[in-house]
Amino acid sequence: RRGLADLPPIVSDTLLALIAMVNADTRANKIDVGVGVYRDGAGRTPVMRAVKAAEQKLLDGQHSKSYLGGAGDRGFAKALRPIVLGRHSGDERIVGLQTPGGCGALFLALKLVAAANPDAKVIMGTPTWPNHPPMIAGTGLQITDYRHYDPAARKVDFAAMAEALEAGRPGDVALLHGCCHNPTGADLSEDEWRQVAEIVARRGLLPLIDFAYQGFARGLEQDRFGVELLLDACNEVLITQSCDKNFAVYRDRVGCLFVKAVTLDNAKFAFTHLLQISREAWSMPPDHGAATVRTVLEDEALTADWRAELDEMHARIRMVRETIAGADPRLAYIAAQQGMFSMLPLSVDQVRQIRETHAIYMADSGRANLVGIADHDLERFCAAVVETMN
Ligand code: PMP
After folding, report:
1. How far, in Å, from the CA of 210 to the mean position of ligand 1?
2. From which domain of life does this come (predicted)?
3. Is the pLDDT of residue 367 over 90?
4. Model-level pTM?
5. Which atom number of ligand 1 is nearest to the Cα of residue 36?
6. What ipTM did this prediction achieve?
């Protein structure tokens, strides 16, 4: 008999090990740029004002927590459409389903592809968010990878990307980061997005846009540039959205999968599949976070306040990037990248050294969550990185 003792070893997520190391360090001045959450100037990850107000409204007005059904809060997916889909929000061939976070949306999207076309390969740039490869493998789909990031130029290796997409077969999935590439911060330019949309459409690929950081790169409208272009160019598109970052509701698990199909009937049919897949996995998505986001978006004043606070977060991301970029010419590229993450020019040994000498914690790859640094630590952080690079 084989039992639980026979479970194979797993390759542990090194970021989780890093969190344990940060917690074990008793130095008062430690700086954690490992974990990927937004922090304000004081080093906190606060509940956003509009979210708090919406939660209060929910608390006062909610008289039942009875089941909502497999689609969860339909008003949530509807309210998100103009934000995520922009000029395509009225397209009825796009259906949206509430999911437990961006992860839930990715899981559903990959399972949907595997059900429709099990031979599809997922064309994926590297490095990527460490959860992408196991999630793809978990649905039985194969990965074809290419180099997304050129570490010497500190930019997207666009030639490699274009070549990989050109080599895709019709029906293969093009996994794209909507904005704020994780872990590199290296996003496509508008012109590169146009080229990607052209290749993806011409080769008959299925774009899967992972859209977890809308509002953190250039602003809410600008950040959906690639999403809108691919919706212009392609009849079938998958968008895995997360509100966990831009509404700062991480633990409430708020996401949405948008699926564009060729016809209205195809879209409705795909939706029934999504309900079936999610029924097997989680039955119904958790309500509270999505209901909160809907409550914000259905209220003009709360929406305005949410947008104002999101803009403040965006401004802080820019400020931190500019400050680090100004510390040394070798860090100047940081200002040209987007979102919370960039790869610092440190070797694995230097990452260990900066941890031991300066109590600064980052992934072995040198990926750092730059807004993890509180204002009062910024100068010390820059000095430590420059000293360690030398
Ligand atoms: N995609 C990317 C690129 C991410 O960085 C994350 C979050 N770290 C997700 C998806 C998943 O987000 P969520 O927490 O909403 O599941």
Report:
1. 8
2. Bacteria
3. yes
4. 0.97
5. 8
6. 0.98
